[in-house]
Design goal:
The chain is mainly β. It has one domain: Archaeosine Trna-guanine Transglycosylase, Chain: A, domain 4 (Roll). It has helices at 10-15, 44-53, and strands at 2-8, 21-24, 32-42, 65-76, 89-104, 111-113. A 6-stranded mixed sheet has the order 2-5-4-3-1-6. The radius of gyration is 14 Å and the shape is globular.
C-alpha cells in the first residue's frame, strides 16, 4: 500500500468520492489502493471552489491524518473531469473509502509506503 499527502479540502473531497481526479506535476507507474493523508497545510482555492459549487462536507477538516483510501486506476493529461487542471497529470481515482477512524500520520512529499499500523484506520 502507498500513501499520498494531499492538502485540505482536496483530501476530504477525494475520500468522500466527490473528487475523481488528483492533479500532480509528476506521474507514477503505481496503480491500486492509495491511502489519502491530509497534509498540515490547506489550500484556500479549494474552499473557494467548494463554495462556488455548493459543496458542503460534514465534520471538521482534519489535518495530519490518514482520512481514507482511493483506487488509482490511471494517470492521463486529458481527463474531462471538473477537477482536472490543464497542463498536469490527472490521477484518476475510483472507489473512495473513508477511514472508520482517521489515524494520525506524518506527511511527506511524493508517493511513499504506508506507515506501520495503517490498517487500524479501517478497522471497525
Amino acid at each position: 500500500m502507498r500513501m499520498l499527502t494531499v492538502r485540505q479540502p482536496w483530501a476530504a473531497l477525494l475520500v468522500a468520492g466527490i473528487k475523481d481526479v488528483e492533479n500532480r506535476s509528476w506521474g507514477t507507474p503505481y496503480r491500486g489502493r492509495l491511502l489519502i493523508h491530509s497534509g498540515l497545510k490547506i489550500d484556500a482555492e479549494g474552499f473557494e471552489l467548494m463554495d462556488q459549487l455548493g459543496i458542503v462536507l460534514d465534520g471538521p477538516m482534519l489535518r495530519g491524518m490518514i482520512l481514507g483510501s482511493v483506487n488509482l486506476v490511471d494517470i492521463r493529461q486529458d481527463s474531462s473531469s471538473l477537477w482536472a487542471r490543464a497542463g498536469v497529470n490527472h490521477w484518476l481515482v475510483t472507489d473512495a473509502r473513508p477511514a472508520v477512524t482517521p489515524m494520525p500520520a506524518a506527511g511527506a512529499l511524493g508517493l511513499r509506503p504506508a506507515p506501520a499500523g495503517w490498517t487500524k484506520a479501517f478497522a471497525a
